[in-house]
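for the recovery benchmark. tokens below, seq after
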């Protein structure tokens, strides 16, 4: 490995070193503030290095045969780092109220971020599986971290068992593809498929089918969505925010890279499968969300529908499709982090503020919080002047350019359906009949940090909705 390769790997070294440093710090003395500070500084330092050095075209390169540091991968690494930073900030206030040992949580969060970063720069099945398992094993523990809470262990065990099955499908699919092509590198598999023409051997089709099952589980799309509502409900609110954003975003970025490397758009059967997954996810996700009275479960089913929207941009392909996926991920990350940040902010040490009744009258007791939450919900619904609207606009534009008229029509219909349950939450917040459930009072510094985080997310949400050109120029320049 050359010196340039080692320098290119610095973002991964920083995260690995931070996890080791926290591990030794905890073994010497437990101090929540110190561990939190190390975590935040590691994410900030990593992002600064990424922006100041790695993102420059002359420093982008391929580390054969596993990793590729290109604009698309580095953009997604930056997105994951910022997401993890925000999750860490909301986690401090969340865990400061609780008596559980807090320090190991940050080791797991950093390792989960490391796994997601490896995913988005993978160009080989080995690095793909390595990143996926680092991410998944960290999530097993993060989901069940609050051991004394009802449904926490259940959620962790359910995710563990189902994730193990999905990894088995993924490995079996990789093995079949390797048996046919003799390679585990994405571009080599693509070259083999290109040389073989449009017909795919039966074993190859079986391999891709098993891969789709494994990827579908990690994305939480229908019909592999059964874990999503239970895990969202049982996991701590900041962990749920990470799963909904960095975890799924890392997988969709990997899927985009893999599909383009193998020239997947030439196979109508594969395009048809992903189109069916998108349609099923949009309809089933939205219809199941209509029946929920738990905010976490509403957001869980909503995330299934949003992954269906993302698959429309993914299927559009081309330059505009990749740009639409990238912008939609930014908008969805900001909106989802804000939603779960408010949920974490209103929670106490007994349970999360996850029931609809917990939000009744919120406008009258905490008006700024209610306004911020309303902005997040309107963005998820795709209402103008929010980031979510611009994200859906680019998805629709990419779909229209690729003549995916059926998928675009279904996306519009489901956006209207989803509007109902978002407005239902807002209506409860505006109800004056009863008092809202009050969260436990936080330390002034913790309260200030939580308020600052939510304010930044709300401002970003509105800014991306009013002036998206800056973000789009950034995406076009990097990609």
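predicted aa per position
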């Amino acid at each position: 490995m050359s010196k340039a390769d080692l320098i290119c790997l610095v973002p991964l070294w920083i995260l690995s070193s931070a996890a080791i440093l926290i591990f030794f710090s905890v073994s010497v003395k437990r101090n929540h503030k110190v561990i939190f500070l190390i975590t935040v500084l590691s994410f900030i330092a990593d992002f600064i290095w990424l922006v100041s050095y790695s993102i420059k075209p002359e420093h982008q390169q391929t580390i054969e045969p596993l990793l590729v540091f290109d604009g698309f991968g580095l953009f997604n690494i930056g997105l994951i780092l910022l997401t993890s930073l925000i999750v860490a900030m909301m986690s401090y206030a969340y865990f400061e109220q609780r008596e559980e040992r807090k320090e190991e949580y940050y080791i797991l969060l950093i390792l989960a971020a490391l796994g997601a970063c490896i995913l988005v720069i993978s160009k080989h099945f080995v690095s793909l599986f390595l990143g996926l398992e680092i991410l998944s094993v960290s999530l097993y523990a993060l989901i069940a971290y609050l051991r004394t809470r009802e449904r926490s262990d259940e959620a962790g065990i359910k995710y563990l068992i189902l994730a193990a099955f999905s990894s088995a499908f993924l490995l079996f699919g990789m093995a079949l593809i390797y048996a046919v092509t003799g390679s585990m590198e994405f571009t080599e598999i693509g070259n083999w498929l290109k040389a073989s023409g449009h017909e795919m051997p039966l074993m190859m089709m079986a391999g891709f089918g098993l891969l789709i099952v494994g990827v579908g589980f990690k994305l939480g799309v229908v019909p592999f969505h059964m874990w999503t509502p239970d895990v969202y409900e049982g996991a701590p609110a900041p962990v749920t925010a990470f799963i909904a954003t960095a975890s799924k975003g890392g997988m969709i970025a990997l899927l985009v890279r893999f599909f383009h490397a193998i020239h997947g758009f030439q196979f109508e059967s594969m395009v048809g499968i992903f189109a069916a997954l998108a349609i099923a996810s949009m309809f089933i996700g939205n219809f199941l969300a209509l029946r929920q009275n738990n905010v976490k479960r509403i957001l869980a089913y909503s995330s299934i529908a949003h992954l269906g929207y993302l698959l429309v941009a993914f299927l559009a392909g081309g330059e505009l499709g990749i740009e639409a996926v990238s912008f939609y991920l930014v908008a969805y990350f900001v909106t989802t982090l804000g939603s779960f940040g408010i949920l974490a902010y209103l929670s106490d040490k007994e349970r999360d503020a996850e029931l609809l009744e917990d939000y009744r009258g919120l406008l009258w007791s905490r008006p700024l919080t209610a306004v911020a939450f309303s902005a997040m919900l309107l963005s998820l619904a795709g209402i103008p002047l929010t980031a979510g609207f611009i994200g859906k606009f680019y998805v629709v534009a990419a779909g229209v350019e690729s003549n995916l008229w059926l998928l675009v029509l279904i996306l519009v219909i489901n956006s209207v359906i989803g509007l109902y349950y978002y407005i239902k939450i807002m209506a409860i917040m505006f109800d004056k009949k009863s008092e809202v459930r009050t969260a436990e009072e936080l330390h002034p510094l913790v309260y200030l940090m939580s308020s600052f985080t939510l304010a930044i997310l709300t401002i970003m949400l509105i800014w991306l909705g009013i002036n998206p050109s800056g973000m789009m120029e950034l995406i076009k320049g990097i990609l």
